[in-house]
Design a protein that fits this description.
This protein has 99 residues and is an alpha+beta fold. 31% of the residues lie in helices and 20% in strands. It has a domain of 52 residues.
Length: 99
């Protein structure tokens, strides 16, 4: 049995999510464990399908000047850096490829 106590500082203001991967060596074998703090549950416009090409197109429309509500603009800021740009498109692509 392995027991671990993981402690983390509170999330900085404006940050709702972070994750870390910790690698343990157990009997000569390496195991990676993902630790998640906060909530990473963006509400996609097509949430029932998960992020997909339609989500990417929606974010690109916003980048190109489509008028959306403040809530939708926050949802489009996938990486939560305060601006909707190509980095958010890349973040969605990463989510799609991860699944």
């Amino acid at each position: 049995m392995v027991t671990a106590n993981v402690e983390a500082d509170p999330l900085p203001e404006g940050v709702t999510y972070r994750e870390a991967v910790v690698r343990f060596e157990i009997a000569g074998d390496y195991k990676d464990f993902k630790f998640i703090q906060g909530v990473n549950d963006p509400i996609w416009p097509w949430w029932h399908d998960g992020p997909n090409i339609a989500t990417i197109n929606w974010i690109i429309d916003i980048i190109l000047g489509a008028q959306v509500s403040d809530d939708d603009r926050k949802r489009a800021d996938v990486n939560q850096d305060g601006v909707v740009n190509i980095s958010d498109v890349n973040a969605v692509i990463d989510l799609i490829l991860r699944d």
